[in-house]
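Ligand: adenosine-5'-diphosphate. Inputs:
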Amino acid sequence: MRRVPVLLPYPFAAALDYAVPEGMAANPGDLVTVPLGKRESLGVVWDGAPEARVAESLLRPIISAAPAPPLSVPHRRFIDWVANYTFSPPGSVLAMALRGFRGPAPRQKPARAFSSPDPEHPGPLLSPAQSEAAARLIEAGGGFSVTLLDGVTGAGKTEVYLEAIAATLKAGRQALVLLPEIALSAQWLERFERRFGTLPALWHSEVTPRLRRLTWAAAAAGEARVVVGARSLLFLPFASLGLVIVDEEHETAFKQEEGVIYHARDMAVVRARLAAVPAILVSATPSLETLINAERGRYRRVTLPHRHGGARLPEIGLVDLRRSPPERGRFLSLPLLAALSETLEAGEQALLFLNRRGYAPLTLCRHCGHRLECPNCSAWLVEHRGAGFLQCHHCGHTLSPPAACPACGEPASLTPVGPGVERIMEETAALLPGARRLIMASDTLSGPKAAEAAVRAITGRTIDLIIGTQIVAKGWHFPHLTLVGVVDADLGLAGADLRAGERTFQLLHQVAGRAGRAEAPGRVLLQTWCPEHPVMRALASGDAAAFMQAEAAERRRGLWPPFGRLAALIVSAASERVADDAASALGLTAPAGPGIAVLGPAPAPLARLGGRYRRRLLLKTARPVRPQKLLRAWLSRTKLSRQARVRIDIDPISFL
Ligand code: ADP
Ligand code: ZN
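Predicted complex:
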């Protein structure tokens, strides 16, 4: 009897052995249905020798072959690679690859769902700079390479990489495009359609299960020629992948923080390498990781230095809040208000940016000083006045606004502290009563439909003033928007995040980049309490390169990424003592040696989350030392309570 290893889409430690029935091929990569306990499960015949731990007499046979093309060798190597790198069970990674496959694809009545994008379709005429950049992307050839496509906001980078997609289509291969917020990409899709005469296939959480099945099957059959989507798109099977693109590569949204914890930008490069195809990373504000790779010559670099169509970059000015503080209880300074009135009077549009949802981030009792906190998390409850509740932004816990302070019982003593976008909306209603306003935040603009309606209202000029959180920073092109005001430019600089400066720079630069993208010049005002901060100075001077160089020098000195490697261990338990004991046990058995440092254990900044107590340790190694092996040995020599959970986050982006 022949036995083969079958990888199942569950967090098991390894593939399980099954017997191959007479007449079945069961080659590596084949999708099969197998018995699992009393159920049946989908699985994939995996590579390597079977474990042979189970006696032949106990071995259960594969039930049947599943109707799908086999997972290719590079795809299987990718699944193994991601599992190994991220410290996850390979079955959990396989589960992402099989999400969307449920038996045979339903028969297609709108067979047009995957009509082929036409590379010969007459798209917009490229400028000479764009044509040259496109030619350089294409000259990289069909084998593995990584190219950073950068350049100022509004340079027309999208049109340039669409040419690389056109070349891939002409070569008869498929392209995969990762966007950070696919649900908000109506404008991107329009441009794709203008270039190729049809829409691409989409892959994200809002796609219906039926369409997912169709898309999965069409990608595997090579019929979906271009698939655009969120992180998990990386795990889709492709019959003949020819190109991998990551747009807005600096976006932290590419980091998946639950389940298999991985950075989709980094894994996209791995996928391209294993498939031996080119990857293109696109951004106006590339991450330090990518910049250093370009500097070292590991990545190629193609730059568009000017805005498309002669549009100029906006002028960025700082409003020193120490000199021009807003009135008591208000958040907009006189210089910003003056600029707003001017802009609106001229019939142009303005954007106020504040990266905080809701009305106020803190509710305080004026009588006793009590703060409304989440019962499950070490976090304040955020007031959402429009929706009529307070909410924890970490676990989702909600509370109706209490009539009296829950601590001292004083009636009507609770008062909001600090602004969220709703409060800025209220302030502008009083000060600019004529302005037609719209809030753009993930809770008010959930889903592609709502996003599309908002885009239409803005480009159709039925809105004068947009008040938005970080989702307004994402690649939008609003031609009549000429003023961007940043309500609290310092917001992202607090806390112990090693990338706080870099991220604040990227976010504010991207927000600023929404201004003046057409004929009318734009301007940007940043309200800050520390105008001498290097981030504020870099934004005002526009010298991104100098800022990133200073940032790099600092990280190099401390051996922080990308000059060293990090892995975070997040220990959690329902009981504080169990969490502390487990964290101390890990502290005692921590690895040591040249190029190895362990920081912690320490309470996590979010010391309680969803009712669990959290402690953190950080393993920091010099670049040649790989943390995975150290972690494996470390965990295996440490005795931990079964009530404690240890989450491993390789290359952490969040330090909460
Ligand atoms: P970036 O991504 O570099 O910030 P975009 O790709 O959004 O810039 O381009 C800015 C604007 O210019 C978009 O509205 C885009 O449609 C337009 N555009 C870019 N290239 C062309 C072109 N060759 N012809 C016409 N419009 C273009
Ligand atoms: Zn909570």
